[in-house]
Amino acid sequence: MLRRRSARIMCLLKGNRVFVSQEKGEEGERLAVGMGSEEKVMGIPQLVHFQTLITTGALFLGLVSLKFVSTEVSANNIAMTVSIAVLALFLLIFSADFFIEGAKGLARRGGLPEVVIGLTIVSIGTSLPEILVTSSAASAIGDDPALADFAIGGILGSVFVQITLIMGIVVVNRGLKIRESWLKRDGQIMLLSVLILSFFLITEGTLEQWEAGILVTLYVVYITWLLTNRKEIQAEEMEDAAPTETQGSNWSTAAYIVMVVLGLAFAVFAAEQLVHYAQNLAADLGVPEAVVGTTVSGIGTSLPELTIAIMAAKRSQGVAIGTLIGSNITDPLLSIGIAGLVHPLAITPGGYDLIIYIIMPFTIIGCLSALLMMRTAYEFRKWEGWVMIGIYAAFLLTLEAHRRGFITF
User: Fold this and answer.
1) More confident position, 182 or 364
2) What is the number of other CB atoms lying within 10 angstroms of the CB of residue 327?
3) What is the Cα–Cα distance from 271 to 180, expressed in whole angstroms?
């Protein structure tokens, strides 16, 4: 009799836990378990010892120290420039990761579906380096017009890197199942975003401020639609989906807010330093700004997407695909749009052929190839991942051939 009564009590407890969890999310589950739970919510005191915060702070101090040494000894050599640029890049990556951790936690508390989290919060967070780098470059165009090539090349390069190299690495590491809704809704919007940006750039080789305003407006409309229809999207995700357990972080709301604020502050500082020293490096080596933006900056600012997508693919393919596709919607609409609002982006004569005839076509080809491979049986196979990596390798070879004068326009 005692065992039966205990079993009934356990069933009731489990039922209450599921019910409250469905109604109130993670917080409700924590309340339902009550004092029997061993989970402890960590606050700001524990955040001080968080490894990511410690690493980010150490990178910040290292960057400031190196800048001070460079100023005091009047060092202006390539080694010092590269060292500061690398530290700024790593600070940008870690601070963006810190920002994403806080943003995802706040989003989960708001009950957003995982794919919507990937398409909105995570994609904006992982695109934060691109947003800050291009905006910083745009603000300095008055002093150096070639920074427009850096900004445009960085955005197109970031999209191309993510859809070919980053997507390829993720797929080779773990094949992905593709939902039809992801392809029809978000995949087509990604391609449309790249095409609209390309059209604006081809016409007179300039992204005017009113055109940038259109890009930002389109992004706001897209995000608003996602958030407004989040319940319908959640219902689509639940259809034919195996139940998965989503583990959430156990930080307090105040800790999440601190992550967002500190992550953003560190990222802004790092982006400004990266643009400044990448510009110096390009001048020292005689490399066009568009090439630096497409390769070094493009790959560097895409590292958050690579890390998050690989980690997310093991637990939630919705977050993995949402992060990559979402970032490739954010960059050609929001990132370059904000930069264009800061200052019109006019491609210089020296960078026109490179951007219009090489970087832009490869970006469009990369997007079309990825969508085509996703469409085959709605599955991204590992060999297709190698094909995407091969497309990026072909792009690098084309860049080198153009630099050596083997390809001219």
Assistant:
1) 364
2) 31
3) 37
Nearest to residue 22, comparing CAs of 246, 316, 315, 319? 246
177 has which bridge partners? 379
Helix (H, G, I), strand (E, B) or coil at 348: coil
DSSP annotation of 207 = E
Q: How far is CA 302 from the centre of its chain?
A: 6
Residue carrying structure tokens 């992801």: 182
Q: Is the pLDDT of residue 18 over 60?
A: no
Q: What is the rounded CA–CA span in Å between residue 265 and residue 94?
A: 12
29 — pLDDT class (breaks 50, 70, 90): very low
Q: Which parts of 174-252 fold into alpha helices (H)?
A: 180-181, 188-202, 209-228, 230-238
DSSP code at position 343: S
Instruction: Indicate which CATH number applies to the domain containing 207.
Output: 1.20.1420.30
Condensed to tens digits (0 to 9), the pLDDT of residues 262-283 reads: 887 887 788 778 767 776 777 6
pLDDT tens sequence across 102-119 = 777 776 776 676 667 777
Q: How far apart are CA 149 and CA 339, in angstroms?
A: 12
Q: CA–CA separation, 115 vs 320, rounded Å?
A: 8
Q: Distance between CA 21 and CA 349 in Å, rounded?
A: 59
What is the C-alpha to C-alpha distance for residues 316 and 167, in angstroms, rounded to an integer? 15
What is the distance of C-alpha 376 from the center of its chain?
26
Q: Is residue 59 part of a domain?
A: no
Which pLDDT score, from 0 to 100, does residue 357 have?
Answer: 94
What is the Cα–Cα distance from 360 to 366, expressed in whole angstroms? 10
Structural domain of 349: 113-237+285-403
Count of CB atoms within 10 A of residue 219's CB? 22
- pLDDT at residue 366, as a whole number: 95
- In a domain? residue 389: yes
In a domain, 97, yes or no: no
Average pLDDT over residues 64-79: 76
pLDDT in tens, 127-183: 777 788 889 889 989 888 888 988 898 899 889 988 998 889 888 887 777 777 777
- Give the Cβ contact number of residue 402 at 10 Å: 18
How many whole angstroms separate alpha carbon 91 and alpha carbon 304? 12
End-to-end CA distance of the chain: give it in Å, rounded.
Answer: 88
Domain count, the chain: 1
Dihedral angle computed from the Cα positions of residues 115, 120, 122 and 126, in that order, rounded to the nearest 10 degrees: 130
